[in-house]
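Dear all,

This email documents one entry for the complex benchmark we are building for the journal club exercise. For each entry we list the sequence lines for every component of the assembly. Then comes the predicted three-dimensional structure of the complex as a token string, followed by one or two observations. Please use this as the template for your own entries, and keep the labels exactly as they appear.
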Amino acid sequence: MMYVLLGSTLLLFAIGMPVAFAMVVSAAAALTSLGNVPLMVLPQRIVTGADSFPLMAIPLFLLAGNLMIGGGLTDKLSRFATAMVGHFRGGLAQVNVVNSMVMGGMTGSAIADAVSDCKILVPVMVKSGYSARFAAALSGATAVIAPIIPPSIPFIIYGSIAGVSIGQLFLGGAIPGILMGVYLMVAVNVIARRRNFPRGERPTLRGIVHALRVSGPPLMLPVIILGGILAGVFTPTEAGAVAVVYALVLTMVFYRSLGAADIPKILLETGVQAGVIMLVIAAASPFSWLLAREQVGQAVVQLLAHIGDNKILFLLVLNVVLLVLGMFLDATAILIIVVPVLVPVFDALGLDPVHMGVMVVMNLMIGMVTPPFGLVMYVVCDILKVTITDFTRELWPFLLALVAILLTITYVPELVLFLPKLAMR
Amino acid sequence: MHVESSSKPPLGGKAATGGPPLKAVRLLWRWGTETAVVLLTAVMVATIMLQVFCRFVLGNPLSWSEELARYAFVWITFLGAAVAYRHGGHIVVETVVVLLPRRLQAILAWLVDALMVLALVVLLVQGLNIVEVNSNVEATMLEIPMSWVYASVPVSAAIMLAYQVERTLLRAQGRLALASAPGERSVA
């Protein structure tokens, strides 16, 4: 039965059936072959999969991000980044990194960040003499930071599948996300010295104060979200609602960059985006119910027991497997199939669930910028009209930096766990 | 996260087939679904905001708000998915397909269409069953029949089935591109 389920799912994925429906068909086939379970279980489990308070954080953070982007707040954030690091060597490239860190505190999605980098920063970079392919690779690489710094859509999905606190995952992502930015800034600096990139002008004190005044209100959002969760005041879903209110007040009242007429379009966009993600999660629910029923996770644990319980080796192998999977498959699809199998293994090896969550998600997000099938790569190359070959040629130093931070957090769990532990006390 | 905006022309062209009356039905169909998504999203967001307000500001948590928001969310999931289905906005793995020869791709596209009909019919029929079973079960707080929540599955399946017919007609006329460009996929 287990082979029917997994085999048919992979086959249907391969022939290009939409992921959610492939899982519906194979779960239906598996249920039928069981014989003693009515097929009605299928829609019932699917609805149960979508009927979740924690997962509601997904549309809320999507909406907050869409409002901020629609209302042009991203421009204001890039002014902050320029005031901070614009005068470094390769200033605009450094701005691209810092902007992604700040944007990461607003949206939880790599794509949203990549698009905003491409539309706002890259034109300025190209005008100042940076090559489009360098700017493209950099924008792709920095976009990976956004879903690691809270809020984060993949963390919400991971938490709901693995039964790990989403608030803890958010807190766990904060330090690794900032470190990703630092590592990428180092990589940018090395390249900037070699290629003798220009510096921006050193900002005056007045300039800095002005930039802070302009960007201050949107910058308060990550502070509110993280602070609220860290203090245990609200759940991630409630934090999402607070983020939406804040975004509405900023765009509609404070800056008046959005009017009431703009809202339905943004709501529809958000509803459809959420529908696409949620349908996969909901359709995975009968699927993981069957996996659990057949005790697939335990089978994998037993298999691993033969190999031994060397954690260092296990983590290395896991990272390689996830990176490779991420290069070929969609991140949400990997999460819903791989995580239910991995969780019992993590338990058996005594690995911290929050640490593993951050590590798994970081792996999959790195896969989004790599060829041959990284989605962020396609989006960036598409917007900037850069070929994938050129993109890849410029990407590798940044990829090296990203893998370096991945290995750092893999083997130094304290970097992930410091903030979650602080909140527990 | 990227989904094509719904304002783009559907399926890369003008309306598929049929005269003005059919076109009117299709427009109404689409308008209804999209309006429902907008309203439901507004309801869900407003309800959660109200819940946060009542809990933190008034110190008096609501009993019904979470349930209402969750059920709106279930409907958003299935109707939003239906809207996305119209312009092929769902997550697809085209890793393997794009490597295949065009003719095989064309055959597989037909096979996927057939399997989609199968999946949607299963969801429609079994969805109607689960609606019937739950018509006497009431939600804990809202005291509405649970069948109202479960109805999202067959309704969504029916809408997508209609879009699937539209897609199949377009494909038969050779007006539907094969493997969608990777940038059109959507992801968290």
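Observations: The two ends of chain B are 5 Å apart (CA to CA). Residues 131 and 150 of chain B are 6 Å apart (CA to CA).
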